[in-house]
Recover the amino acids of this structure.
């Protein structure tokens, strides 16, 4: 027993030493990555159906949400709901890690560089927008692979590979999809649809943080540190941001699978052309196809993401945002340190 206790103490001391040695940005990367991976896996079945609604309109919209679940379960089994989830998690972990970390870093940089800007929601709008754009640029190829794998319909073992539509590639996995996409169109192929991704993420990420911070300002002081309150505010903010930018997500998905869709019509070229084509040929409602499913997905995803992120920040002993700003302040700003400190003390630190 004593040996086990000593071993546990040594492991605890080792963990404490590792945590203390980690810089703040590394702790934020770890916390954000775990939060994103867990949240994405929980909502993966809804994500799969949403992508099929966006890209296989005739096959799945006609049978509805529950019919789509039944069709996937019947033809592909339980694992069919997680088709493309490996690529999705492989993307979301670095994406969420970069998004959270970049947001914190941009926020600190803006505060130190432009101290007169203030701490209102505009700060979070700008920092969130740039953080979202940064994360997208680094992880878009993984998002494209995830979409292609989720778009692919493969029959169960009882059926055979003939159930795959003609003229479609059969991707065996993430590496195979990467390889075939690169051979077909090179680096440009891996970044197909990145334009609408950026158009969408800049306002979405910015608005999400904007609404979140603005709603928190109306929360009574005694409830500001409540995880439940943060989750509710974050969920509503995510829903509002998603509603405003969702059409660009549909455009992005259709551009990513354009080589499959092109076999049935003219090739899709650019963002604006795709947006106009969808509105004219498929109707403006198609631009919001899958939005109701996305609402069901966003609420638990944001809730789980915020909860895990907060828990991980606590476990990793990440300092409060304003404390981190003070630690990151260069030595040559000490002459104005008093005014900075006054601003920090007057600002909301319950984040």
């Amino acid at each position: 027993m004593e040996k086990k206790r000593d071993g546990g103490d040594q492991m605890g001391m080792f963990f404490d030493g590792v945590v203390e040695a980690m810089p703040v940005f590394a702790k934020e990367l770890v916390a954000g990555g775990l939060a994103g991976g867990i949240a994405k896996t929980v909502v993966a079945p809804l994500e799969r159906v949403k992508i099929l609604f966006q890209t296989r309109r005739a096959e799945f919209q006609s049978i509805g949400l529950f019919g789509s679940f039944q069709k996937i379960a019947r033809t592909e089994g339980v694992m069919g709901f997680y088709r493309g989830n490996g690529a999705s998690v492989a993307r979301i972990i670095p994406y969420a890690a970069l998004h959270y970390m970049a947001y914190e870093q941009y926020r600190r940089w803006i505060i130190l560089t432009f101290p007169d800007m203030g701490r209102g929601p505009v700060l979070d709008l700008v920092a969130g927008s740039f953080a979202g754009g940064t994360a997208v640029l680094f992880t878009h190829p993984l998002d494209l692979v995830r979409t292609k794998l989720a778009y692919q319909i493969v029959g169960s073992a009882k059926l055979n590979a003939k159930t795959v539509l003609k003229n479609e590639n059969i991707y065996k996995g993430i590496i195979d999809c990467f390889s075939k996409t690169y051979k077909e169109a090179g680096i440009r192929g891996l970044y197909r649809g990145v334009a609408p991704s950026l158009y969408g993420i800049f306002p979405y990420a910015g608005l999400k943080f904007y609404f979140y911070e603005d709603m928190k300002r109306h929360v009574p002081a005694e409830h500001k540190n409540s995880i439940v309150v943060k989750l509710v505010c974050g969920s509503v903010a995510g829903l509002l941001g998603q509603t405003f930018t969702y059409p660009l997500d549909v455009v992005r998905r259709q551009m990513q699978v354009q080589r499959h869709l092109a076999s049935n019509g003219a090739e899709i070229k650019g963002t604006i052309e795709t947006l106009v084509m969808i509105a004219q040929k498929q109707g403006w409602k198609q631009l919001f196809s899958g939005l109701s499913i996305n609402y069901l997905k966003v609420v638990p995803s944001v809730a789980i993401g915020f909860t895990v992120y907060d828990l991980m920040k606590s476990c990793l002993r990440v300092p409060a945002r304003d404390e981190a700003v003070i630690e990151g302040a260069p030595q040559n700003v000490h002459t104005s340190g008093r005014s900075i400190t006054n601003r920090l003390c007057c600002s909301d630190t319950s984040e």
Summary: The mean pLDDT is 76. The chain has 15 helices and no strands.
